[in-house]
Amino acid sequence: IKKIGVITSGGDAPGMNAAIRAVVRTCAYLKVECVGIYRGYEGMIDGDFKAMDARSVNNIINKGGTILKSARCAEFRTKEGRQKAYDNLKAAGIDAFVVIGGDGSFNGALIFNKEFDIPIIGIPGTIDNDIFGTSSTVGFDTALNTVVEVIDKIRDTASSHNRLFFVEVMGRDVGHIALNAGVGAGAEEILIPEENLGLERLLESLKRSKASGKSSSIVVVAEGDKTGRNVFELKEYVEEHLPIYDVRVSVLGHLQRGGPPSCFDRVLASRMGVRAVEALLEGKTNLMVGIQDNNIILTPISKAIKGHTKIDKELIRVSEIMTT
Ligand code: F6P
């Protein structure tokens, strides 16, 4: 392998730049050429490539987003799109690539690798932490810190007005952000896709909370929670069934994806970037770099996207005790 491409794809996550930097610098260290592929698979289809050396990634370890830009690309889902992408890689002399992204990006990589013989290694980059084969994805820790910081601020105003807040956090299919940030921010209830607590239980818990003398209440709701109601509908439901509360809603949205990466994410991304390049040079392919018990490990990408991440039951138990 003489030339390695690096690409960021899907939703961006803080720490992606640190991962790009690690891939580029490891290539420079091991004397392999490196090429940045811009705008995710879209840029692969358009041949939007730029040679990168150790100095191309100066001063980016501390920056959120991705300097390579990202996209969710519909054309890559077609055979014709993937053929164009392959032709461009060949024309540019790119023998292998590292894809930094989540579920969708890895799915694309697997199909691509089946059709064309090009080695691929994945680095999990998503704030959702919904990838099997790693206890933490790049961006998850930063997102948690961001959410906790924001909920702390919401709590100030909630408690000044004796209000109840429904705070919606990201997590289309999983509740890792909601559960961890909820515990970290001292939420009274946490609603996640993995468990449906039911609306009756929510009302009971809020009643108890008020009766016990709490001056404010924060309910953290994952985007994909299964009560069947979004945060605005939950607000209406509680106002109707529990008029003792003055209720407000805060949807945190994309601010959760931005900001400088935490030290944890920077170190994680650096370790994963090094291992990804080394793995390619060892002749490996279709694997994802992950971290387990502080060891850097490799998992087949097919498992990473199919094996479901499990919500931490012990943390659910802790959260229940903490609402006393
Ligand atoms: O990065 C994953 C994620 O944050 C999901 O939790 C969320 O539903 C989605 O991205 C929204 O992303 P976009 O607005 O880019 O489609």
From TrEMBL:
GO terms for molecular function: 6-phosphofructokinase activity; AMP binding; ATP binding; fructose-6-phosphate binding; identical protein binding; metal ion binding; monosaccharide binding. The active site is at D128. Substrate binds at T126, I127, D128, R163, M170, G171, R172, E223, R248, H254, L255, Q256, R257. ADP binds at R21, A22, V23, V24, R25, R155, G186, A187, E188, K214, S215, S216. Its cofactor is Mg(2+). Mg(2+) binds at D103. Keywords: Allosteric enzyme, ATP-binding, Cytoplasm, Glycolysis, Kinase, Magnesium, Metal-binding, Nucleotide-binding, Transferase. Allosterically activated by ADP and other diphosphonucleosides, and allosterically inhibited by phosphoenolpyruvate. InterPro entries: ATP_PFK, ATP_PFK_prok-type, PFKA_ATP_prok, Phosphofructokinase_CS, Phosphofructokinase_dom, PKF_sf. Belongs to the phosphofructokinase type A (PFKA) family. ATP-dependent PFK group I subfamily. Prokaryotic clade 'B1' sub-subfamily. This is ATP-dependent 6-phosphofructokinase. It comes from Cerina litoralis.
